[in-house]
Amino acid sequence: MTETTQRPPRPRRLPNSGAWGATVILLALVGVLDPGAFGTTVLFAAKALLHTAPFILFAVLAVAYLKASGAETLLAKAFSGNPARMIVMAALLGGLSPFCSCEVIPFIAALLAVGAPLGAVMAFWLASPLMDPAMFAITSGTLGWEFAIAKTLSAIGLGILGGFGALLFAKTPVFSDPLRKRPAVGGCCGAKAPFSGTPVWRFWQQDDRRQMFQTTALENALFLLKWLTLAYVIEAMMLRYIPAELIANLLGGTGLWPIFLGALVGAPAYLNGYAAVPLVDALLAQGMAPGAAMSFVIAGGVSSIPAAIAVWALVKPKIFGAYLAFALVGAVLAGLIWQVIA
Fold first, then answer.
1. What's the whole-model pTM score?
2. What highest taxon heads this organism's lineage (predicted)?
3. Considering only CA atoms, which of 135, 130, 162, 164 is closest in space to residue 294?
4. Is residue 9 part of a domain?
């Protein structure tokens, strides 16, 4: 991650996403193959964006403030002290911080290189892709406050699960010598000197921080707009063209199978955390079980391309496999709990 006095960091995103192009292609297909549905599809997406607009605005301003103030410097404090405390703090900060996986690659590489406990690093890695202020705002606006809070607690719980799991088996062959010989410390954000300095909460008193606030707000607004537009178009198409009975038969009902299947489907079907929210909304409307929805967003978030690459770039395949295993187990547990209380 860059320092606050250097080039502003980019928002979290998938590389070469082409979201706008995908949206145009999908709308063109609807217009050609089902002209009568074109207007309703566009109207559905527009209404959904309008409904989500206040949450998008809050998310954009919150992330821009945290970036401009340099709040990421507080992250380093989670990786010092008692190992158990480190794991809990890392999970909490990972589940609440607004920083993408690629931005923390140099920071994590440095910690692992100097011997920071793998448990704390694992806790942060598992929780970090799942929730942040922007994600919470978008999720609560579409799926409700209860689901957003439950996902936040699940993210923190997953981090704690993976962290203490890594701590418990730290002396086994799987978790020994975790780093690759030459870990890649670069990332899609171009970060080189992470988490230095102290936060400046009144960032508007400095020109460079004001510029960072403006740049971050604009880039995140465009990022959310393009991905949510695509997601709402896909949601409208799913509601129109995918039979509700199919979703209900595959992912509906009670028991372990729909939740486990939701976790398995979440990995390949996940676009990113923001785009997944409207898709889950559509699946729920068509009969997806609540527990399966939770396992879908938890497993998919951890296994999404940016999150997975951040881990793969630094550690050996055995650690990467453990990361995915913790994600699957945690997703199923979160789904089972949510199925009971939802």
1. 0.73
2. Bacteria
3. 130
4. no
pLDDT of 325 higher than 80: yes
Q: Please check whether residue 2 lies inside any domain of the structure.
A: no
**Bridge partners, residue 179, by sequence:** 315
Contact 148, 291 (CB under 8 A): no
Span 179-219, pLDDT tens digits = 776 555 444 444 444 445 678 888 898 898 899 899 988 98
Residue 179, in any domain of the structure: yes
CB atoms within 10 A of CB 253: 14
Judged by average pLDDT, the poorest of 6-20, 101-115, 230-244, 249-263 is 6-20
Q: Give the CA count within 13 Å in the CB-facing half-sphere of 31.
A: 8
Residue of 47, 64, 74, 77 whose CA lies nearest to 223: 64
CA distances from 75 to 145, 279, 318 (A): 26, 32, 26
Residue 3 lies in a domain: no
Look up the domain containing 120 and give its range: 19-341
**Under 8 Å between Cβ of 95 and 79:** no
User: SS3 for 20?
Assistant: helix
Q: What would the DSSP string read from start to end of 2-13?
A: --TTSSPPPPP-
Query: Structural domain tally of the chain?
Result: 1
